[in-house]
Amino acid sequence: MNTNTANQAKPNYTVPLITITLLFFMWGFITCMNDILIPYLKKLFALTFVESMLVQFCFFGAYFLGSLAYFAVSYYKGDPINKVGYKKGILSGIILSAAGCVLFYPAATFSVYGLFLGALFVLGLGFTILQITANAYVSLLGSEESASGRLNMTQAFNAFGTTIAPILGGYLVFGPGGDHNITAEATRVPYLVFAGILLLVAVLIYNVKLPSFQTEETEQKGLGALTFPQLRLGILGIFCYVGGEVAVGSFIISFLELENVMGLTEAVSKNYLAMYWGGAMIGRFLGAISLNHGISQGKKAVYMILTAAAVFLLIYSIVNLTFDQMSFFIVFLVLNFLAFMVGKSAPARTLAVFASINIILLLAAIFSSGAMAMYSILGIGIFNSIMFSNIYTLSISGLGSHTSQGSSLLVMAILGGALIPLVQGVLADSEFGVQKSFIIPVICYGYILFFGLYCAKKLKFVAHSKNVSGH
């Protein structure tokens, strides 16, 4: 009976995946707009680095408070998503996110920094619900062994949104005048447009038939999801990953403005910021292929090479950079391909390899100058690519009825995106300066390396064991 039900549901998974992927794209785009808002608000309100990082603090702080509330409700009253369903959960997240976008209108009209931070907090709460529901939902749309591959694919389109956001978003906020065109009203229309698009996505999802996943709830004693060691370690892994990724992205424009690095203007730097996020997009597409256990190794190599070339050309068509300015990225594509080969399609091993490379790149960015420093910091994006998906799926593997509760705890750990950039901001404002402040992300990726090695050794990941048995 269960087998027949599963066979009937599988043909319907394509449409839900496409629909949810569209949602991932939109929230990736809007999230990356924070990297545009930081320098914009910093100049508009004459802020310090620490004060400007309150943008990320309020946005990602909402993830922590929202997830904490969700966990408390799920622990004492039962899992809300399991009660109302993933579809209603996703819709409520979209509507709250749209409300956050609308709040940018009064914030820009009155030109009050606190109102901007309030709008970001509401927007973050909406995205919290989406993170809890949509990520777990994608992991359930198919077998557990292919969950990392599916989540990497949807995250790739999330990264596509983050790639075009610095270009299109920078134009919408700064206008054709570039970074000299700083006005308080610049964010009003763009965020109203974002709200409208989110509501259209909500209408689309409302009218699409989505498979329902619910588990039998039983009375749980003790710590519930926290009894799983991979989840406990994964929570700190997500904290470090999101914190490191956001911190690097938040400081790239300021880093490239340094005279001993490149001395670029903000208008030019935003194109390189797109390369950072574009690298994450390429890596996630490649990760979706590499971690797909239904494809032979030979076909994987061909598909990965063709995909990398296609996405690189897509990014080239988007950013306002010459081929010579972008050609350095080909080296990172080759290195990324080799890293996937070393990872051998094992999520934990691949995670450890990528974390190691990012540590090396960050150290190069700290202790070098000029183009070498710039290339090193931009190359981090492509090796960030699979980290969230792999940490997430490794952490919730085997949680069963605790999956949504575990997901809420992992989303709570996105608090790293609020705190880590703030800590780096303190260092950047001090005598350490912007360049040496990147030692903070080094520590973050150091822990991710540990988590990957732990899971590779201790966690017998379902996907790998089934692949070996020939299932």
Describe it for me?
The protein has helices at residues 2-9, 14-44, 49-52, 54-77, 80-84, 86-102, 104-110, 113-140, 147-174, 188-207, 229-257, 266-290, 297-318, 323-326, 328-343, 347-367, 370-384, 387-396, 403-412, 416-429, 433-436, 439-458, 462-469. By secondary structure, the protein is mainly alpha-helical. The chain has a single domain (2-208, 224-469), classed as Growth Hormone, Chain: A.
Features:
MFS_TsgA-like; 471 residues; disordered C terminus; mainly alpha; 23 helices; transmembrane helix; 0% strand; MFS; disordered N terminus; Growth Hormone, Chain: A
CATH C-level class? Mainly Alpha
Number of strands: 0
Low-confidence stretches: 1-11, 218-222, 461-471
* H and E string: HHHHHHHHHHHHHHHHHHHHHHH
Break the fold down into its secondary structure elements and pairings.
Layout (H helix, E strand, L loop, with lengths): L1 H8 L4 H31 L4 H4 L1 H24 L2 H5 L1 H17 L1 H7 L2 H28 L6 H28 L13 H20 L21 H29 L8 H25 L6 H22 L4 H4 L1 H16 L3 H21 L2 H15 L2 H10 L6 H10 L3 H14 L3 H4 L2 H20 L3 H8 L2
Helix pairs in contact: 2-8, 2-9, 2-10, 2-11, 4-8, 4-19, 4-20, 6-8, 6-10, 7-8, 7-10, 8-9, 8-19, 9-12, 9-18, 11-12, 11-17, 11-18, 11-19, 11-20, 11-22, 12-13, 12-15, 12-17, 15-16, 15-17, 16-17, 16-18, 16-22
